[in-house]
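Example S7 (structure tokens).
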């Protein structure tokens, strides 16, 4: 009799444990599902933004012009037909010499920062796709001081150094006999000229 009672008690305990275990598992699954749904709602309500999404919003709103941006980028790189101008201020005489030339292939398609690395000793005075102006200063006397005067009936060019010494640079084939008396007088005393461009202009006027 006692044996049957113990068996019934064990069966009842097993049933109770099974019921409690089922309830526990149900609650865990229910809470987990609720949290998952809740988190999904939070994620759905949270707007993820970064530089790309902001750029896209502005673009679709018509506030960004891609063609203008591309043109702006192109403006900041060196064109194959660009001119390079190098300005050098010589502090001793106070003159600024300008050298003009075509850009080298190594500069083509470079931006301002890259050009600066190619010419670290210069200041970039102006930069565009068609023209670059570099600038530097030197505590020196420039070598483009000239004196144009008559020598043996022709026009001669003398170079003047920092100590005012004259050295013959070139004898031209321009005869002074065919020039007006005023020009002959100027050439007799000597005409001081600075810069190769100015020198060439004066010689052209005498030809």
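Recovered sequence:
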């Amino acid at each position: 009799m006692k044996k049957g009672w113990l068996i019934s008690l064990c069966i009842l305990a097993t049933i109770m444990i099974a019921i409690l275990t089922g309830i526990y598992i149900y609650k865990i699954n229910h809470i987990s599902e609720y949290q998952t749904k809740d988190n999904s709602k939070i994620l759905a309500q949270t707007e993820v933004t970064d530089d790309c999404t902001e750029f896209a919003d502005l673009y679709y709103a018509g506030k960004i012009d891609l063609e203008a941006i591309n043109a702006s980028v192109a403006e900041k790189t060196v064109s194959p037909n660009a001119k390079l101008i190098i300005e050098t201020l010589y502090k001793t005489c106070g003159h600024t010499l300008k050298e003009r030339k075509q850009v080298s292939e190594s500069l083509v398609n470079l931006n301002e920062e890259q050009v600066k690395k190619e010419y670290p000793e210069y200041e970039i005075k102006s930069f565009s796709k068609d023209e670059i102006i570099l600038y530097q200063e030197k505590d020196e006397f420039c070598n483009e001081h000239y004196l144009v005067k008559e020598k043996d009936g022709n026009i001669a060019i003398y170079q003047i150094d920092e100590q005012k010494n004259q050295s013959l640079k070139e004898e031209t084939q321009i005869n002074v006999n065919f020039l007006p008396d005023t020009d002959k007088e100027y050439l007799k005393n000597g005409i001081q000229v600075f810069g190769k461009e100015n020198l060439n202009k004066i010689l052209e006027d005498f030809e």
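Notes on this example. DSSP finds six helices and eight strands in the chain.
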